[in-house]
Amino acid sequence: MAMALKRIEKELKIINEAEEGFLEEIGIISAGPMDESDLFYWEASIKGPEDTPYESGIFNLSIKFPKDYPFKPPFILFITKIFHANVHHDGKICCESFRLLYDDWYPETSIIKILTAIIDLLKCPNFGACGLYGSCYDQRDYKYYNKIANEWTLKYAEGECRNFLNGDGNITEYNNEIKELITNYETKLDKVNEYYLKLIEVIEQNKQKIEKIKSELKQLNQRFARLNDGEDYYSNKCRLKDLRDDLYKKDKEISELNLYIPSPIKEKLMTITINSFDEKIHLSTTCHKNDYFSNIEKLLYEKYPEYKDKNNSFYLKGKMIDNNKNLDKNNIKDNDIILLKKNMENE
Length: 347
Hints:
It is built from 7 helices and 9 strands, in the order ααββββααααββαβββ. The strands form 2 sheets. The protein has a 5-stranded mixed sheet. It has helices at about 1-15, 20-25, 110-125, 140-155, 170-230, 235-255, 295-305; strands at about 30-35, 40-45, 60-65, 75-80, 270-275, 280-290, 310-315, 320, 335-340. The protein has 3 domains: about 1-170, Ubiquitin Conjugating Enzyme, CATH 3.10.110.10; about 175-260; about 270-340, Roll (Ubiquitin-like (UB roll)), CATH 3.10.20. The chain is α+β, with helices and mostly antiparallel strands.
């Protein structure tokens, strides 16, 4: 009993010294002994949660601590009459719906935690558990259940009137919010799907490049074999030099292959188009927003080598593009069209 008293005094001290506004924020109005001469009998008041039939109602509960507390849970009853699926007519909370005070009790549980859990139970009744009032209601009759619960709150707990019969207790509001969320998520999924389709397209393009280079390397290897079989070593020396140069070119192509595979998969791919003022160039390519524009320029010159000079300028919406910045820092967006202007004056 001495241990129980010591624990109860500790609980009372925690409540009395709680930070200002903390208990009120979680819905606890007060909790403490009914008579200072007997700390084993308490009374607590909680506020009905918002957006429930119990909104703004004041519900009083009695708390009786056993002599072997905290090894056994306190006995708690609703003093204020309440219509709830998990509260019996005598104010007792159903053991199946609130196991915290029964099988799931553990000595470290505080009174604040118990009262908070009771408030949560007011927010979300457990219609699957036993109860005096909840057993005859299903989801189709939920608004009628809420109507009666609200009427009892008005009558016995001085709560606010909520129209649950003609309306639906914010259910329409929740439905609209959920529909909007689903629509937004579907849109996001469509964008993710589009992104992966682009990624697959880029990977396929690189696969084709790889196969092409492998085929070309095979031909170069055959050239090398033929040269070694020949007897004219002096003429073969020049051919070997040409072969070596060709291999260096292939090495560069292989090194640049990973340019258009986005490293972090979460990053955005984009498609850009380059057109020339003289309408001779039209190049569309899928790229990564972190690619430097100089790499896009290289791709263009591979396809149009006649434009590879120092007199070319690229413009987006009238502003010249910096080749040493990536697409993101150049403010290039998905599906932007970039114009190339070639200055022929010095030629």
